[in-house]
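Q: What would this chain look like folded?
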Amino acid sequence: MASQAPVRKWVGKSIRRVEDPRFLLGRGGYVDDILLPGMVHAAVLRSPLPHARIQSIDVSKAKSLPGVLAVVTGKEVTQLTNPMPDFGPDPAKHTWWLLAVDKVRYVGEPVAAVVATDRYVAEDACELIEVEYEPLPPVVDPEEAMKPGAPLVHEALGSNVAYSRTFVFGDVERDFAEAEVVVRDRLRWHRSGAQPLETVGAVWQYNPATGMMTIYCNSVTFTYLLFLVANTLKIPSNKLDMVPCPAGGSFGSKFWAVRVPILAGMLAKLVGR
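A: My prediction, written as structure tokens:
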């Protein structure tokens, strides 16, 4: 009679990892490692102001720089793409574009994008773009932002409140009245954000003959991202092939990282690369 095989138990065991060698040997294949034939590079000009209206943008000097293939501002974006998906308050009133169109709402908001033969030329061209701003009062304190007459970040929404809801469980007034001790306090939650070592990145390859587009991206959500990207770029989803790349950290920051891959796709299609 054959002996019964022992039951394998995994709890408390040291499991040998099989996914580490390629990363330890520098063969991870991150977005920055991808090199394609004829690849060009993009750079983004960002707002230095927290709140301002865009009076004018002069890109003539940037376009004349040798090696520059295209310069795009918010006005061109409204013709080349649909608004990005917006799950904020009242999406019907609020449009979220790849580049700022009439107004900037935070320091670092993308204002213009440059495509050039290499990264250095693209960044040099960004410095040649002249933007005239009309500064507006910044909105930096949440309580001040809710007061009547406060500057509005999004005028179309008519409020700076993104979401508000009050939760009530049980007879609150009675329970407080009958409590032996009532503790009152004021709590503040500081701003926080995920800061992985690797930032969001994307590499696109466009085939003008077939209309097929391949995207190499370090987003951590690919299924729904494919359809969001396709809709924003006005292309059928079956014309888009998404290749996942390892993410060098995320902490949630690459779950909804849609702007970078969509912007890169728009520029790739624009220059036919």
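The chain has a mean pLDDT of 91.
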